[in-house]
Structures are given as structure tokens and as C-alpha cells.
Amino acid sequence: MSKRVLIIGAGGVGSVVAHKCAQTTEFQDICIACRNEERAKKLAAQLPRPVQTASVDADDVPALVKLLKSFKPDVVINVALPYQDLHIMDACLEAGVNYVDTANYEPPETAHFEYSWQWAYQERFKEKGLTALLGSGFDPGVTNVYCAWAKKNHFDTIEQIDIIDANAGDNGQPFATNFNPEINIREVSAPGRYWENGEWITTKPLEIKRTYNFPTIGDKNIYLMYHEELESLTKNFAKYGIKRARFWMTFSDNYLNHLNVLKNVGMTRIDPVMYEGKEIIPLQFLKKLLPDPATLGPLTKGKTCIGCVIQGTKDGKPRTYYIYNLCDHQEAYREVQSQAISYTTGVPAMIGALLVATGVWKGAGVFNMEEFDPAPFMEKLTEYGLPWIEQFEDVVVP
Ligand code: NDP
């Protein structure tokens, strides 16, 4: 049966979501909405078939409810910013629409993200018989599904998960982030955190560093960070014996040098500063000066490699396993005019929404990705351009 989807956000990720939704015949009607409708219209003009556009401020819940009630989507894909998550969930509840996002809620005034705010919607989504699917990007998203797939097919117990995210792409810019600069810099500047033996260990930002030899892209420096999927995976995999869960990301020395200087001079601050009689937030001003990630597509060359190294047991014997995807920036650009970071986020957002809209992933309440059967999602990853590779031997744990 044909379905209707409303995409909120027409930035780097929104652009890939729109292309991918337009590629599937199961989404017969598509509407792209953001505050600046011109941006949505420009994106709509690139798509292979006609779609609707709308102007909406997602923080204005009554306006969003009005749009939802008039377009009547089966599912909303929230690829605006994490600040909008709760408002969009409120509007979905009022209009009776399923909800999918790619990043967990973050209050604008504190660089702190955790699932508690969105998990608190559990009873309300349950009562309305609606599904809220949280974190359907790559990480979080595919990484959670990889873990569920590993448990389903290859492990009886899972003791350790290391999620490792490498971007070996080069965009030729002195300093540019590959998704929304404000969200990216808030995330990278936050203290590191990992799960060990039943408790969270906090580190200074990027304090723990290792070198990892990635398939195809070779040796890269990786840094331990906190990432939201650690919170849901340690909760949902407690029953499988999880003892340690960590998240690692690559950064070039050039990126880190720029970030340190910007931090040292106060440009990454998120508290208001008076400037010539007007309040400004330094990080939001910096965002205005940095390249828009949506423009990096034609400039970026190289590959991303994101995956999970998992340790546990099968039939009483220890096992180590690595599952990952390699995505090429230029191939992504040729297909959907976006670089691989937006591609690896937008494809799973579309797949999550498709599985919810068609009832393949069914349930009333608020769910993280690892709570559903991973098989249909894994099948669609290959179909829509993110094939995965499994390795059982020579897996090196960081
Ligand atoms: P961009 O800044 O490129 O795009 C954000 C879009 O949201 C813009 O179109 C903006 O348009 C729109 N928007 C912002 N505020 C509002 C609002 N109040 N109402 C309606 N629309 C709004 O961001 P990205 O595309 O890079 O990132 C999108 C999301 O994807 C982020 O939440 C990010 O954290 C997440 N992400 C997740 C990843 C994962 O693997 N899970 C990886 C990378 C990103 P306008 O200003 O016109 O409204």
C-alpha cells in the first residue's frame, strides 16, 4: 500500500532522505518542510519525481500540527536539528502520526544529550498506538542494528562493543564539519564517556587515543567520545552480559588543531555574549562562517568506514567479530549530490521510516533501533546503497 512521508529538514541529511524516499515507490506522496521553503523547493527540483514542499518552524507545535493534519503523513522523518525532537514528537502525538529521527534531543543551552527526555514519551506513544523510532541514522542507527544482527546470528553473549567511525574523506577546506557545524562541535567538545562493569567512566574530551587499521583506508588515529547509542545498547543488551561499550571516531590533526584554537579563543562557547548591544552565541556565529556541509558534496573525495567490533561467546567459545560499511564520497555525490556523511545518515533514516510506515517494524511506544528484528533493515541497507561486510578473523580490538 502506498504511504505518505513528511520530511522535516532540507539540509545535508534531509537532501539524501528526500532522494531516497523518491527512489522508493512505497512512498507515493512526499512533502519536504523547513523554515525557509526556498531551500525545500530547490531540493525538490533535483528529485526524479514531483514532491510537495512547505514552510514550517518545527518549534511551533500548533503550526506543525496544522501541517500534519492537512498533509496526513503515515510517518514524519525528523532531520532538522536535535533541538526540535520533543516539539516534533508533541506534534506527532497530537496529529496521530508515527515519528522517526536520527539524533537524540539536546537542550540548546547545554551541550548534553541523553535519551531520558525522549524515553519519557513512552506511555504517550503507547496510549496513542503510535511508533517513535529513535536514532535511525548510521551512528546511532545502523550501528545499533549491526549489534542486534550480531546477537541474532553470531553470538549467545555479548561482552564488549566498540563502535568505530572513520571518515577518510578530504574536502580540501582548511576547516569544515561534515554535518551541522554547531551540533558537530558541541558533540566533539563534550567529555568522553564509556561503559565499563556497570558504570559510566568519564574522560576529558578526546583524552583517549588509539591507532586503528581500517579495511581499505588503513591506519587512522581514533579518539574515544561519548555517543548516544552507548546509552540504549548498554540498557537493551544488559541481558546479554555487556561489560564494556565504547565509541571511537577519527579526526585529522588539522581538524583538531583548528578546533583547539577556536576553543581557546572562545568561539565554541554556547552561552550568550553581548556584542555591540546584541546577544550572540559564539558557536552559532562560527556556524555562519563555516562551509555549509550541504555544499561539500562536489568537493569531498575518499571513503568512510563505520562499524562495530564485537566480542562475546557462541556455543561456549569466545568470538570476535567486525561488521562495517565502506561508503565512497564521490559515488554518493554522483547518486544523490551529497557527500558520504549525509548519505550514510539519510539512507537509514529513509529505511527506518519505510519499515515503520509499512508496519514491518510495528509497535506502540518509543523504540531504539536494536529493539526490532534487524533482518529486514539489513536487507534494505544493501538494496539502498549501504552494503555491509562481516569479518571473523584478524579482528583487532582497540
Ligand atoms: P543541516 O544544518 O544541514 O540541516 C538542518 C535542516 O533543518 C535545515 O534544512 C534547516 O532549515 C532545518 N531546520 C532547522 N531548524 C528548524 C526548525 N525549527 N524547523 C524546521 N526546520 C528546521 O543539518 P544536517 O542535515 O547536517 O543534520 C540533520 C540532523 O542529522 C541533525 O540532527 C544531526 O545531528 C543528524 N545527524 C545524524 C547522524 C547519525 O548518523 N545518526 C550523522 C549526521 C547528522 P531551515 O533553517 O530553513 O529551517
List keywords for this structure.
14 helices, binds NADPH dihydro-nicotinamide-adenine-dinucleotide phosphate, alpha/beta
Could you state the CATH homologous superfamily of the domain at 142-332? Dihydrodipicolinate Reductase, domain 2
Bound molecules: NADPH dihydro-nicotinamide-adenine-dinucleotide phosphate
Mean pLDDT comes to: 96
Strand content: 25-35%
Please identify, by name, the CATH architecture of the domain at 142-332. 2-Layer Sandwich
Any overview of this molecule?
With 398 residues, the protein is an alpha/beta fold. It has a domain at 142-332: Dihydrodipicolinate Reductase, domain 2 (2-Layer Sandwich). The chain is 35% helix and 27% strand. The chain is built from 14 helices and 18 strands. The protein has helices at residues 12-23, 37-46, 61-71, 85-95, 116-119, 122-128, 142-153, 181-189, 229-236, 253-264, 282-289, 329-336, 340-357, 374-383; strands at residues 3-8, 27-34, 52-55, 75-78, 98-101, 131-134, 157-167, 192-196, 199-203, 209-214, 218-225, 244-250, 273-275, 278-280, 303-314, 317-328, 365-368, 389-391. Strands 7, 8, 9, 10, 11, 12, 15, 16 and 18 form a nine-stranded mixed β-sheet that branches. Strands 3-2-1-4-5-6-17 form a seven-stranded parallel β-sheet, sandwiched between helices. Helix 3 crosses helix 4 (85-95) and helix 13 (340-357) crosses helix 14 (374-383). The radius of gyration is 20 Å and the shape is globular. The chain starts with a strand and ends in a 7-residue tail after the last strand. Bound molecules: NADPH dihydro-nicotinamide-adenine-dinucleotide phosphate. NADPH dihydro-nicotinamide-adenine-dinucleotide phosphate is lined by residues 8-14, 34-36, 39, 56-59, 79-82, 84, 102-103, 137-141, 179-180, 183, 293-294, 341, 345.
